[in-house]
Specification:
By secondary structure, the chain is an all-alpha fold. Helices cover 73% and strands 0% of the residues.
Length: 71
């Protein structure tokens, strides 16, 4: 029997037929090279910029938070 007939009809309807094509998954080494130093530094830089932009807001609302916490 073909692979399509072995699959339950409900599963075939909901998830589609099984493909016989095997996809090439990236190796662990390829995944590690994707996270190179430059992209990590860009990520850290964007986080630091976000923190710098949120600090004035935190300074404005901190008295309200302290007052609410003291009650």
């Amino acid at each position: 029997m073909s692979e399509e007939r072995k699959q339950h009809p409900f599963n075939r309807m909901m998830y589609g037929g099984r493909e016989k094509k095997i996809e090439d998954s990236p190796t662990r080494e390829e995944q590690n090279t994707a996270a190179d130093g430059e992209s990590i530094l860009d990520w850290v830089h964007s986080i630091m910029n976000s923190i710098d932009e949120l600090m004035p807001l935190y300074k404005k609302i901190s008295p309200f938070l302290k007052q609410w916490n003291s009650k």
